[in-house]
Amino acid sequence: MSDRRRLPYSGEIALETLRGRIEAARFTNGAPARVIAPVTDLCPDPGSLRDRQLIFGAEVTMIDRRGDHTFVQSAWDGYCGWVADAVLGAPVGATHVVSAPATHLYREPSIKRGEVMALSMGARLEVTGEEGMFAVTPLGFVPRQHLRPLDAPEADPVTVAERLLGTPYLWGGNGRDGIDCSGLVQLGFALCGRAAPGDSDMQWAELGEVLPPGAPLQRGDLLFWKGHVALACDAERMIHANGNTMSVALEGIEAAKTRIEAAGEGPYLGVKRP
Q1: Could you give phi then psi for residue 147, rounded to 5 degrees?
Q2: What do you get for the CA distance between the two ends of the chain, in Å?
Q3: pTM score, two decimals?
Q4: How confident is the model at residue 254 (pLDDT cuts 50, 70, 90)?
Q5: Can you list the domains of the chain with their CATH numbers?
Q6: For residue 51, what are the β-bridge partners?
Q7: Alpha helix (H) residue ranges in the chain
Q8: Where is each NlpC/P60 domain found (predicted)?
């Protein structure tokens, strides 16, 4: 209840679910909305530096408004924060998710007629039909091969993460333009239909079971340091968004342990199997 990151309380207005649990000037049931920008920062205060990001199509509950910003709670992971009013629109029933690293939303069913916007892996769209090689949405046309039905999730978060190799590292990032370690894990889980919290300390506390020291690693195991997380590709290699290469990269597990310890970037915590 004390972690502001998932507390649906703006400092003045709280969700009705918190009535009797906290003191607030007013309680609300909130109102549904979705993100209509390719990506937007989710900030602890209006206009401040981001905690995390929300991707196009993310569903949120609007709780409070201050100036030209709205306090929201993400439906996917419960993360709360402020976003600009301009990035919010009416909710729709999403049917598909962008499964390619990135794609474009086109004005017409043609790659030569101009695009409306770029979309990151993880963007959620309402598909209403097909026209040639394109999926039809209310906002435009997307190459069908870049989408996956939400009711047919992928099986392996590591395979998802590997498609993002080379993506620039960005603190608090959640998309193709930039992503951090916990964002990579969260996005990999999301395309597999599995919810994961947004930050590595939450993931360490909430995902899976801790393996005993020396236990054999499997693909998909999560390796944790204080403030960092990686996905095991196999017993010897891992994939992670990291500040060393400033990208999503593969690295030997033992080499990473040695490097991170030598750099004094935080102690190794162990392995969890989600």
Answers
A1: -120, 160
A2: 24
A3: 0.96
A4: very high
A5: 4-89 (2.30.30.40), 96-149 (2.30.30.40), 157-273 (3.90.1720.10)
A6: none
A7: 157-162, 181-190, 200-206, 253-263
A8: 151-274
